[in-house]
Amino acid sequence: MKTYLIFLFRVFRLSFQGGRKFYLWMGALSVLSLVGLYAFSNQFVNGLQTTGMTNQVSWGAYIANFTFLVGVAAAAVMLVIPAYIYKQSHMHKVVLFGELLAIAVITMCLLFVTVDLGRPDRFLHLIPPFGKLNFPGSILSWDVIVLNGYLLLNMHICGYLLYCHYRNRKPTWAFYIPFVFVAIAWAISIHTVTAFLYVGLAGRPYWNHPIVAPRFLASAFTAGPALIILAFQIIRSTTKYWIGDDPIKTLKQIMTVAMLINVFLLICELFAEFYTETVHLASANYLYFGLHGHDTLVPWIWSAISLNLAGLCILISPLSSRLTYLNIACVAVFLGIWIEKGMGLIIPGFVPTPLGQIVEYLPSFNETLICLGIWAFGALMFSWMLHVAIPILDGSLRENSEAAISNKNDS
Amino acid sequence: MSQHENDTASSKTIEETLKPLTRRSFLKGAGVGALGMMGFAAALKPLLDLEKGDITIDELLQRHYKELGEDDLSRILDQLTGDTKTRYGADVSIRDLKPQNGVGFAYALSLSKCIGCRKCAHACLAENNQSREHEDDINMSYIRVLELDKGSINLEKSDHYYEAAEVPQKDKYYMPVQCHQCDNAPCVKACPVQATWQEQDGVVVVDYNWCIGCRYCMAACPYDARRFNFKKPTVPAKSINPNQTYLSNRVRPQGVVEKCTFCLQRTRDGRFPACMEVCPTGARVFGNILDPESEINYILQNKRVYVLKEDLGTKPRFYYFFD
Lengths: 411, 323
Hints:
The complex is a heterodimer. Chain A is mostly helical.
């Protein structure tokens, strides 16, 4: 117990120690997070009138970001599967980073849902026994369970493994391997359940088709690894922790296949929509070409498609073996999928309304600040976790070294 | 790799690598810490604008409507009556009207008779205390009247904003849409906290003190029947209808969803809904479907009845018919 408290204390102390760059980066992110908090306080007092949402388009940027990020969180599994199922040793060294990323991203997801609530002060209503969770009827209640469950699983796995590293002990099989395997299935489930949130609504034909869930997974397994590839390179250039090229190559392969599947599924979807020309085409028409002169989303979706296709072209060509090009592809598909799966999926579901009304949506300034704040907070969390985890992994933060330190201080 | 790892491990601990704590760095840290706290306080500053009574412990700890005892409920009703007086300056009576045994409501609307005058949409507003910017602002009305081209029933081609000098227009017909009080309601299924449910008489209600404002029900509704309070409702005192109930037309809190309740503050008292009473053409028929002698029963059995979006399996209690 005492050892554990010392561990926590050293982690706490380390959290505030770093070089000039560390302070600048963390300081900037803190300021942005606080700006977001300010905007949220403002929204909390004045209500969601501070957003661009309306009775007609009742979900906007919050839910769009949420949906996208659930995918990024689920994509941590793309490090876990090679490491634990295919026993690729080069992945073992980095798998923890994926799980840490999942923790940060799931936290962002939960924040995005919270800021979307009209009455966040009533969140207790979701938690039995005081609350009345509508389980299993409401898919949203499933989402609450799977997201929090995934957060807890990853917190347990990361916390346990890091502490074992700190104690220089071999982790006990039973304390983490079963959790790792549950987390693999769980990761798939968080994104599937999030897709079902939309698929389950018969009144919104734009969402109500079975391909949404597989497409969610395919695009998640593209955007997630893209982010992780970029993160790996930042880690190896800013810290002493060496990550080889092998994990990056593995992730690149996963990403390429996932992107191909994603594009294929998109084509399937477009065929069904545009070939049949039913009245349900209206939403897709609005998204890709504009409807009755309303075309806010048109430039967005075409940039998303261009970014995705450009990224895919690089990925399948030999160019991608060079890191610069690979990075360009990663940024392109990350942005492309963020647009396509966020605004491109959520907003057309509401345009036109089930009664044919067309009301367009753009996030307000205050709403944008809140989104920015949550992204900054996620980056802050991930940076902090890496800042603490890397010294633990490379051995410079170890239990026995504490003894050495205290001896020195005593003398 | 492991070579590398061992090297770092044996060479230096992280505390040795980083600068040791000095008086100077401690003060610096304290300064930054204080700055951070100030930033945090500044970020929360808008919360000072919360009005007294916006969020109370009583309300946070209030149970779900179905779990409230009689004492709790009467205390809450008194509280709400007082709040309406202090905030809106209106004297109102808020009751808790239960559904009656042997009553199941249904509503039918004649598409042949409706002329699209929107009187129902306005009457709804006057009856149900929705938020409005001015007297003609029917954005929060529970009824949307669609103007459609004769010869088609494609809602996606409907016009919600028609402003003809005279209705009905020759080549048009009109379709008012409001909550269909579905027996298989997608909104009830969607709600994550059971804040909305169908009552025994068929009316789908919302516990405004339980709703968390996630708006999943709005996404789920195929009839666009739900409205959200994006701000604290604005209703002029003189326009407030004092005949209110807990589950229907009391002035709503900010951040919750509301909807048509077939005017249960009237209909559970033996009166007709406001939209029906005001209709100048008699296009609207409301009644007890469990009563074999009722007009609504006659219509459903003898007229040509049309159920909007029947393919979705929502089993509405709201029907359209043709004369």
